[in-house]
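Example 3.2
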Amino acid sequence: MTEAMTEAVEERQPPAAPWTPMAVVGVAQLMVMLDSTVVNVALPSIGGELPAGPSALQWTISAYVLVYGSLLLFGGRLADVVGRRRSFLAGLTLFTAASVLCGLAGNEELLVTGRALQGLGAALLSAAALSIVLAVYQVPQQRKIALTVWSGLGVLGATIGVVLGGLIVTAISWRWAFLINIPVGVAAFAAALPSFPALAASGSRPLRVPTAALATLGLACLSFGLIRLQDGATTASAWISLAAAAVLLTVLTLTELSASDPLLPLHLLRIPTYWLSSAGLLLAAAVMISSSYLASIYFQQVHDMSALAAGLALLPMGLASLAVALVVPKLVAALGPGGLYIAGAVAQLAGAGFLATGTSGVAATVVALAVIGAGLPSSFVPLYGIGSSHVRLQESGVGSGLLNTFNQTGAALGIAVVGTILAATVRDESGSGATAADATTTGVGHGFLALACCALLALVVALALHRLTRPSPPATRQT
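Structure, written as tokens:
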């Protein structure tokens, strides 16, 4: 390439953008991810003060991640239609206002409602934030750095969340686990106004609000039915809810498959690597959030640990995830994405399988949780990479959005199933004369047994993906 041609290429490259927009969306996204785990160690305190039963406590987590996950694609559509900055600010405002409702809630109904509204705000905010990152940082090196930071926010948020939640609950009150979002949200809003550039909206596509509502209602009925099963397999409301979920999700599927401009790009599930990656993300998310949920209950109710002590006991799990996340690029180069996912599934299976034995030692539990934590980025990173790599470039946005939907849905369904197993086991064991601590230990063990089954399914998915993604051997030349 001649010097003149090089100069012409450099002239066509967009100038480097300032890092202020990345800082704003990064803080907001960190707040969103932190709220996925910050309440885990606060659940016993919430249940004692409101009061709230086991199902309400499950919904404190599930309502957030379920609405967040099911409306991510709608959030992306809204950002395209009304503008990224407007959508981001609307989501940030709703998330902050909902945090106030959660922090001041006087009963379990208001708390769950506030968490659902937080999930809606998070979906609008998060989808617009990623779109802003892609629009602002067009210089290849800047975009690479920005996306690396973005992908690390999930692990960092989950790690900070459990410790910060424990610290806040112990030092002040569980309510401040939500109210702390107010100054962060206000500061992010004030910083976004001058730092975000004008980003044009398409304004030509329909929002598809009915489709988004149908998806959310169907998943809510599914989660509600699974949670209600903790009252017994003969609970009529559970089966009615599960039947309603089956009808709603079937209607949703048929509608979207025939739509010319679908909100949910279900046709992508015809790609083997894509649907396997989606299934893997659902399973990995279930293991991730349910492990910290079960461990928090175990540490506080069996070993009488404070919320802060429980948060610190969960810290090695987050640190192990963070440590592995830092070397994932090297691991992918050495093992390949399929091989790395196999290693991650094996780690989750080993940790959850050990905890399924109902061990009563805190130290052993912390180590097993760290093993699970190490397996999480070894699953999430290759799954997102494999899933998105086999999607056409023009569908990359909706393709990554649907992968995120499976991720968050897995978290919601995981809590619903594991929480139900825990509650049903504790009820049965207590009815047989076991002490509260022994009943909870058995229930936690059964919960981890369910997660070990998830990890075993993940290993099957990993083996299939490894077979589909390994490079073909070079053809031998015949003379």
